[in-house]
Amino acid sequence: MKDGKLQWHSAFYAAIRIELEEELDKVHMEEEHLLGKKPMQMDMLIIKKEKMVKINKNIGHIFREHNIIEYKSPDDYLGINDFYKAYGYVCFYQSDTEEEDQIDPEELTITFICNHYPRKMLAHIDKVRGIKAVKIGEGIYQLYGDPIPMQLVITKELSKERNYWLQNLRKDLKSGGEIKNLMEHYEDKKFLPRYQAVMDVILRANWEAVEEERTMCEALRELFADDIRESERNGILLAVGIYKTISRFPEKTNQELAEQFSCTVETVEEVKRAFAD
Questions:
Q1: Residue 56 CA: distances (Å) to CA of 24, 60, 109
Q2: Do 17 and 24 touch, CB atoms closer than 8 A?
Q3: DSSP 120-131
Q4: Residues 99 and 145 sit within 8 Å (Cβ to Cβ)
Q5: pLDDT digits (tens, 9 = 90+) for 12-23
Q6: DSSP 41
Q7: Is the pTM here over 0.70, yes or no?
Q8: CA 29, 30, 36, 39 torsion: positive or negative?
Q9: For residue 240, how many C-alpha atoms fall within 13 Å in the half-sphere facing its CB?
Q10: Which of 31, 62, 167, 238 could pair covalently with 158 via S-S, beta carbons 3.0-4.6 A apart?
Q11: Are 113 and 72 in contact (CB under 8 A)?
């Protein structure tokens, strides 16, 4: 189970949906939103369905109408170039419209989400751009000094009470308290696809701690076994369903298929590659 490349972004997309699940009716989300005709895409775009509605979740406190998300996996760092890339995405997104000023520049925000505190990047934007990071909550830093509202979210620093699944989307969980607590949180959520997507990557990323926990707790061994069997069965059914739909409706886009089957675009692409092979 620990073999293979971890799909951190797939789990991240699911984790964001969990974070905002009480307010999903207020927003429309697009994974890997394409910018123009060339292969340039944001990690995530969150658009409020109603401009004036307020997002109450702590990670969405700065959200306006159009919100660009730049995510870095636990193995990656948020660098200086990543800052300018995301900033450029926002500018391009605003300008890539059919009508002049179709998107109000004052309705744009940028959220950087990563596991490691980006000291070099923050020092650079402070010195060069006059942008300063101010901590406003557990794991959440407001970036002041630019016309575009920006925030930095450090996942490992987030509140376990308010951001449980996003906070656990990392690879340094400890056997005992953290793994056991994870399974307890998952027990009544394990049949929901977005929780399955997050849990799958968390388990794979922390497999040594998981194995250690399993040897200590018979109840968890049974829960893991049931979970793995259920995950494998659901995965097979999902793949077959996607393949049959592609065969019947080849004109459907990956985004349309992902929405139809409540999965990620990456999952659709993996199914396509598997059957192509």
A1: 11, 7, 16
A2: yes
A3: HHHHHHHHHH--
A4: no
A5: 999 999 999 999
A6: B
A7: yes
A8: positive
A9: 6
A10: 167
A11: yes
